[in-house]
Amino acid sequence: MNRNLELLNPAIMGDEQAMYELFRYLREHDPVSYVEHHNYEPFWAITRYEDIKFISQNNDRFINSPRTVLVQKQFEQVLLENFGSRNGLETLIHMDAPKHKKLRGVTREWFKPGPISKLSSTVKSIAKQYVDKMEARGGECDFVKEISLLYPLQVIMSIIGVPPEKEGMMLKLTQELFGGADPSQARGVNPEDALAVLMDFFAFFSEVVEDRKKNPKDDLATVLASALIDGEPMEQLDQISYFIITATAGHDTTAATVAGGLKALIEHPDQLQKLRDKPELCHSAAREMIRYTSPVRHMMRTTTQDEVFQGQTIKAGESICLWYPSANRDSTAITNPDVFDIERDNKSQLAFGFGSHMCLGQHLAILEVELFFRELLPRLKHIEFASEPEWVQAIFVGGLKSMPLRYEFN
């Protein structure tokens, strides 16, 4: 059996050890691998750091459309029929120049380091709220379900301007969107079920847009509702797509990092103690947690000309898939990549992507992770696993689904 087919197996991609072993094998033996599976259109799997970085920084040669994430043929057809695109709703991650640059510019100022730093007091307050909740649980909780999934959700919803009573619905929709291959999170097994999730997002954010047009506020929703592109109001489909990617990617990946970061600290008590002793390392620790967990598993590109990587010729118009967790464990680019080191520099890691499509919300994500652990660790006396952590079965965005803990506060 060709091992590259395991990339499409949610059970393997939802098993931390099995996933990284697979990436190690592919980097060493099949780094540019042609994948053919009856449920998917063929694609090339790219697993080495140098190739992924090169592709990411050359967007004119490797474009995002028409395939941006791995979607089964049946669902691609449903999206094509309903939206005229194999990607469905076209978000920032699906767009190419010049449209991508224009729409990214709508919120660019919001997500720069300066404006994000001004959110510190808000994020710190929400972090304290969830550490307080953890303490109030009396020494035991499922950290993922009760803390890490909800904390960044509340942060991004407050920035967008979505009321707290809608957070539960937004969490459910995000899990159905990203966890569509996980039996416990998927809405159903048919392409129509996945389409229904997108339509629910569309309906919800359509109401938000209309409300902000009538009742503008000092929030991101108002910025998007009133945005102009080339002097004209942003198209509704673009507005809704913008909301969806901001709301979903803005909390799900950070939640995965907070949970995966705490798991790594528990498994590396020397790093946990170091972070207790030197809380000023929380910023670099946050960046290491993001590299170490790499919640976004992949993105896809399409070649505009013939390309050669590792001796393999990829023809113009063929699809390629960039596997970020593999790049972030590539020893040719990152020293001792399997070691969790909170003092690591991490300027070269690719968890946020690279080039013009580098994650717009990276500074917010780092701030959220940093401030959570700044709040938690000084109050925490002891922590351990209460039972084995469980992972979401997903090939696009992944992370922990459950992590029962026992702990004692000071």
What does this structure look like?
This protein has 410 residues and is α+β, with helices and mostly antiparallel strands. The chain has one domain: Orthogonal Bundle (Cytochrome p450). 48% of the residues lie in helices and 14% in strands. The strands form five sheets. It has a five-stranded mixed β-sheet with strand order 1-2-10-7-3, sandwiched between helices. The chain has a three-stranded antiparallel β-sheet with strand order 4-14-11. A hairpin with an 8-residue loop joins strand 12 and strand 13 (400-402). The longest helix has 32 residues, at 236-267. This is Cytochrome P450. Pfam families: p450.
Number of strands: 14
- How many distinct folded domains? 1
CATH-defined fold name: Cytochrome p450
| Main sheet characteristics | 5 strands, mixed
Topology readout:
Layout lengths: L9 H4 L2 H14 L2 E6 L2 E7 L2 H8 L5 E2 L9 H11 L15 H9 L5 H5 L2 H17 L3 E3 H6 L2 H10 L6 H12 L12 H24 L5 H6 L2 E2 L2 E2 L2 H32 L1 H9 L4 H12 L4 E6 L3 E3 L2 E3 L4 E5 H4 L34 H15 L3 E6 L4 E2 L8 E3 L1 E6 L1
Parallel strand pairs: 2-10
Antiparallel strand pairs: 1-2, 3-7, 4-14, 5-6, 7-10, 8-9, 11-14, 12-13
Brief write-up:
The protein has helices spanning 10-13, 16-29, 49-56, 73-83, 99-107, 113-117, 120-136, 143-148, 151-160, 167-178, 191-214, 220-225, 236-267, 269-277, 282-293, 324-327, 362-376; strands at residues 32-37, 40-46, 62-63, 140-142, 228-229, 232-233, 298-303, 307-309, 312-314, 319-323, 380-385, 390-391, 400-402, 404-409.
